[in-house]
Structure prediction request, 438 residues.
Amino acid sequence: MKKLGKLFALCLVFAMILIWSANCLAQTKEIRFWSDQTEPWQQEVIEKMINKFEELNPDIKVNVEFLSFEDRHAKLVTALATSTEPEVSLFASQYATTLPAQGILIPLDDVFEELGGQDAFFESALSLSQYKGTYYTLPYSTLPVVIWYRKDIFEKYNVEPPKTWEDLYEAAKILTEKTPQDMYGIGLPYGRNEWTDECFRMIALWPAGGKVMDEDENVIFDSLETVEALEYYKSLYPFTPPGSETWGYYETMNSYISGITAMALYYGRTLVNLKEYSPDILVNTGAIIPPKHKYQATVNPPQSIGIFKNSNYPELGKEFLKFFLTSEFYAELLWATPGHNLPVLKSAADDWRKHPLLEEYPEIVDTLLKVNSPGIGFSPTKEPGIEEASPCWMAITGAEIIPDAVQKVTLKNEKAEEVAAWAAKELKEVISEYKQTN
Prediction:
């Protein structure tokens, strides 16, 4: 009897453990997280972040899926069509512009205020977060573009870092004519791609005071400012290396890293690439904001994070979103490519600067952070002077009308006035078609 009693007691304990375990499993809620930050070290940091979050929130499990840049759009389209959206997702800038207009993200005004509101964020970082006065995404980093230049080459030929359009033209000309035959003054793209579109706008169109659209989405590309910008961008072409008429992102950066240009326009990832491939050039490198004409501006698109309305647990998604932006791993995630990703919360800037490479080049870091300042860094989808980004930008970028205009003027010698008028007509058609189908 005693043995039976002990056996019964053991069975009872075991049953209670099973019931307790089942209850725990039943109470654990799973949320999904999409990340387009897919490099191995980025995945490692995100996994550590998730593990810590789950440790602090044992009733929540986070399942992360890493999406390549090439696959993310198809994955999103499929998820929306099948109602299988995740709770939380990272978004490139074009999605932060278009998705809120489709009504598929939840408002984040409460999260924004919990994180400290307007004063807690670098102003430039918030440029794409609002749609019709409501925060539907929050930034997790910005991507600054600056002009990288060879201080040793500039000094050798008595050239000052350019501050104006005229300075930039003269510097590019002198450094093409006086340097060795295999070096050119400036690295700029003239290929048929979105990078040419962006470079044209930050070097030429925005400084001239021009824009593609006004606040009401009326196309204003056929302006005197556009004509002036097209002619100026063309004037720099002779000082770029052969082949720049096909360049995109990496060719522009590589022109500087390889030493064939004395200056080049590119993102902050240039810093870590110089460290790895051209440390001799890095020690002689400086960085400046693209020069001013009437105005001064550059590209600094926010990378965003948001929550899908039709996911299973959007409120739990908010908890993970807050942790993502404030955890001890946040700076480490930005360090995946030191200099390329700027912090969005002012309180995170000091920790971010503690990376050894960033500490080694404080003047470059100061310039990169300056791009986060009000009135300096803009998203390609939210131009200077525009209060709210237009959802039409994905269609505009895909049509490649702006790089076509650059090539018509630069490579085919067509008149800038006629090209500006042609481009404006094409842009109006693209925008009209987008609005009819969305």
Confidence is low (pLDDT under 50) at residues 19-25.
